[in-house]
Every structure is written in structure tokens, then in C-alpha cells.
């Protein structure tokens, strides 16, 4: 199976030489195509010919007509099959697209494409995800399959849109011609885009068990959380592995149920550990791992392996714990095994400086209370990467000594996760 060509959209703030530098950067990171849209850039803001000299150029007409210089330089010209008025494009350049305002049945979607499309033109169909369910994902896959049957396997791209669309887009990408992805940072061209790095990694390190010809697609793994662009999970687990960064109030319960046929397991991080423990009927207060068991999810908390490692590294009999979420539940469960007494501190209870040894479990996005101060305390940081560095700086600023134990926690729990996912059915 051919992998989809990875498309990155030029951000609206980048013009002239900055746009050229961006194109060079994304090419070095594995992008195949650069998209420039008329709703994001005026004609004079970019040198289309220069951009096309760096990457294949896809120019998209969104409201404002495409400048002739853009069309001349482009590899593909995106015009809406419903709203463009005309699908004119130089021979072999047309990408006919449609962006639906609501979820469609397969038959409704196919009726939109009862138009004459030049031979060889690409076809792109976009819909909002709508109400999450296995049936809804199945409709999108059926629409994709029927469009591929009508126009040819090498011509069709179907995209889902919305705050929780990322894993569904990843599933669809396995049969798409184009995969619209984001470089990272604060801006994305569309809600639900996955990261370029994850799409590249999936192709670079394919699943070790090839599919027999004509069978389905490989089931995936992923991590569910909020603000997880820093997560290192994709680097150490088998591919394909998706960073599924969704809003804190997202319907994560419905999402994991809708994805059951397509994912064999998930890592779960803040803020969904407690919610998914309840959803899966776990006897645990919080979980961090889901494993597929045919038609249901089985949940585990491999954070206990990380918690045990951190408590052993601290080597203290008495430990205060800042925060009482999913990570704290793992710490609580293993403390008796290592002979450790814990003191869990609520934010409102912190009024005097803290001494001794402690563990900071608050996510980086949570602001600590103003009253928090340390009196030479050794404080374990169980985050890693940039969030860990920010937390460590906060601990130092407040009079403590940070102990960077996030990597130790992460590796210990990840080993157990990997073993569990190998048992998925």
C-alpha cells in the first residue's frame, strides 16, 4: 500500500522569505507538499514559483480567486466541486474538493460527486465528525471506499474535521492519497490535524507484521490527553502510534468506544485517567492504559511501575504529594510496598513552607497556589521534556531542589504498557 503524501499548510503569518524558510523546514521534516490558500494569503504575499522550487505546491481557492501565478506554479489546484462555479485548471492539476457543513450519509456524499471530473484529477471530500460512534466512523470509511471505487484508488482523499477528529483522520489516512498534517505549535490549518512527525514516523518505522494483500489496515496505538505535543510515547512504542491531543472537556468515553475496531490500545494521560477508569468499570481510581479485548476495553494502571521507581529513588520514609489526580492514585497504591508514608496536600491547605521530600504531580498547565514555598525540600518532578523543565524552574524559584525523575517514571510504566498491548485481541 502506498503511503499518503503529507501536506502542510503555510501559516497565515508567514510571508515572503519567511514562507520560503518554512517550506525548507517542513521539507526537511518529511513534508511532501506545501498548501497555500487564498483565504490565508493575498497574491503578493508569497512567491509561488520559489515555493514550488522547494516542495510540490498545492494552491487552494477559498473564496478569493486563485492568482494566475499561483496556478502556473502549482502541482495541484484545489477548487470546490460545489462552490467554485468552474473546475478549470491546467491539464492534470485539478484537485476537486468539497467541505461539507454537516455529517453526511454515504449516499448523500456520493450525490455531491455526481459531476464531471476530468480524468486524472484528484478528489478530496471533507466532513465534520459529528456524533461519535463506531457506526459514524464506519460511514466515513464506507464513503471513502465508495469514492475510491468510483474514481480510482490513487485519486481520493477523505478527511474528518473537529476537535476529536485526529484519530479518525489517522485511520482514514491509511487509504488516502493526501494526508493534511500540522507542523506543530499553536496554529493548525484545520481542527483534528495530526502532527507531521507522527505521520513521518508511521512510514519510517512500519508495523513489523505486514498485512496480507487485500486485507484491512493495521490497528493503531495512541496516547490520549490534553497538551501532549511533548509526549515521547510515539518514539518508543510500535507504530502506528498517534498523539491524540484533545480538549479537556472532550467526550473521551465516546471517542474510545468509537475507535474500538481501529485501535488495539491507548496510553491515557491527564486529564482522562479518572474518567476512563470509571467508563471502563475499573476497580482502580485511575488508569493509564487501555487494551482491546475483542468488543471491549480492559483498563490497567502501569503508572504503578513508575511510582514505585520514583519512591525508591527518593528513598524517604515520609513524602508529601502535590496534587491528587491519576498519578497520585498510582503513588498511593505502591507506597505501602516501599514502606513510605504519604501526605497528600490540597491547594487550599498549603500555607507554610514545605520541607523534606515530595512529589509534584500537577500537570504543567495548572498554576500552583501562590502560597506554595519550599524550605530546602527535595521535590521529584514526574513530567519530562519542556513541561518538566518549567516545573523544575518553578520549584527552584520557590526554594526547593527539583529531582528530574520523569524519564524514570515514563520508561518503567511504558515497558509494562508495551507488554500489555502485545496481548490485545
Mind explaining what this structure looks like?
With 425 residues, this protein is α/β, with parallel strands linked by helices. The strands form 3 sheets. An 8-stranded parallel sheet has the order 7-6-5-4-3-2-1-8. The relative contact order is 0.08. The protein contains 14 helices and 18 strands. The longest helix has 18 residues.
List the helices and strands and how they pair.
Layout: E1 5-9, H1 16-28, E2 33-37, H2 48-52, E3 56-60, H3 68-73, E4 76-80, E5 94-99, H4 106-112, E6 122-128, H5 134-151, E7 156-161, H6 166-173, E8 178-181, H7 196-204, E9 220-225, H8 233-236, E10 241-245, H9 252-258, E11 263-268, H10 273-279, E12 289-293, E13 296-300, H11 303-314, E14 318-322, H12 326-334, E15 341-345, E16 357-360, E17 378-381, H13 385-397, E18 401-404, H14 406-421
Parallel strand pairs: 1-2, 1-8, 2-3, 3-4, 4-5, 5-6, 6-7, 9-10, 9-11, 14-15, 14-16, 16-17, 17-18
Antiparallel strand pairs: 11-12, 12-13
Helix pairs in contact: 4-5, 11-12, 11-14
What radius of gyration results from the CA coordinates? 24 Å
- Report the helical percentage: 25-40%
Identify the strand order in the major beta sheet.
7-6-5-4-3-2-1-8
Biggest sheet layout: 8 strands, parallel
What structural class results from the helix and strand content?
A: alpha/beta
Strand content: 15-25%
Count up the helices. Answer: 14
Distance between the termini: 24 Å
Please provide the count of β strands. 18
Net shape:
elongated
Low-confidence stretches: 211-215
- Output mean pLDDT: 92
Amino acid at each position: 500500500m502506498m503511503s499518503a503524501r503529507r501536506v502542510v499548510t503555510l501559516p497565515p503569518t508567514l510571508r515572503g522569505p519567511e514562507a520560503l524558510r518554512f517550506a525548507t523546514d517542513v521539507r526537511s521534516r518529511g513534508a511532501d507538499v506545501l498548501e497555500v490558500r487564498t483565504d490565508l494569503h493575498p497574491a503578493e504575499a508569497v512567491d509561488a514559483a520559489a515555493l514550488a522550487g522547494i516542495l510540490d505546491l498545492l494552491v487552494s481557492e477559498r473564496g478569493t480567486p486563485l492568482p494566475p501565478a499561483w496556478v502556473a506554479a502549482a502541482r495541484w489546484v484545489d477548487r470546490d466541486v460545489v462552490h467554485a462555479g468552474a473546475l478549470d485548471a491546467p491539464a492534470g492539476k485539478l484537485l476537486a474538493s468539497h467541505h461539507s457543513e454537516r455529517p453526511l450519509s454515504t449516499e448523500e456524499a456520493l450525490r455531491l460527486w455526481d459531476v464531471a471530473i476530468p480524468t486524472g484529477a484528484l478528489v478530496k471530500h471533507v466532513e465534520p465528525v459529528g456524533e461519535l460512534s463506531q457506526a459514524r466512523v464506519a460511514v466515513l470509511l464506507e464513503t471513502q471506499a465508495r469514492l475510491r471505487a468510483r474514481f480510482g484508488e490513487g485519486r481520493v482523499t477523505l478527511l474528518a474535521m473537529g476537535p476529536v477528529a485526529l484519530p479518525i483522520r489517522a485511520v482514514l489516512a491509511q487509504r488516502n492519497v493526501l494526508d493534511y498534517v500540522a507542523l506543530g505549535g499553536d496554529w493548525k490549518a484545520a481542527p483534528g490535524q495530526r502532527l507531521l512527525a507522527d505521520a513521518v514516523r508511521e512510514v519510517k518505522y512500519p508495523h513489523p507484521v505486514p498485512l496480507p494483500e487485500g486485507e484491512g489496515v493495521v490497528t493503531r496505538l495512541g496516547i490520549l490527553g490534553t497538551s501532549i505535543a511533548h509526549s515521547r510515547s510515539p518514539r518508543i512504542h510500535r507504530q502506528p502510534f498517534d498523539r491524540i491531543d484533545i480538549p479537556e472537556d472532550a467526550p473521551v468515553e465516546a471517542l474510545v468506544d468509537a475507535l474500538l475496531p481501529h485501535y488495539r490500545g491507548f496510553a491515557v494521560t491527564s486529564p482522562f485517567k479518572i474518567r476512563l477508569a470509571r467508563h471502563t468499570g475499573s476497580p482502580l481510581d485511575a488508569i493509564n492504559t487501555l487494551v482491546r479485548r475483542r468488543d471491549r476495553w480492559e483498563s490497567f494502571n502501569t503508572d504503578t511501575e513508575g511510582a514505585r521507581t520514583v519512591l525508591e529513588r527518593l528513598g524517604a520514609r515520609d513524602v508529601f504529594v502535590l496534587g491528587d489526580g491519576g498519578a497520585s492514585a498510582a503513588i498511593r497504591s505502591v507506597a505501602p510496598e516501599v514502606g513510605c508514608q504519604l501526605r497528600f496536600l490540597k491547594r487550599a491547605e498549603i500555607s507554610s513552607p514545605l520541607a523534606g521530600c515530595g512529589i509534584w504531580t500537577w500537570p504543567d498547565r495548572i498554576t500552583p497556589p501562590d502560597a506554595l514555598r519550599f524550605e530546602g525540600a527535595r521535590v521529584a518532578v514526574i513530567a519530562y521534556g519542556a513541561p518538566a523543565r518549567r516545573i523544575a524552574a518553578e520549584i527552584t524559584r520557590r526554594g526547593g531542589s527539583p529531582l528530574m525523575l520523569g524519564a524514570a517514571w515514563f520508561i518503567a510504566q511504558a515497558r509494562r504498557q508495551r507488554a500489555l498491548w502485545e496481548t490485545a485481541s
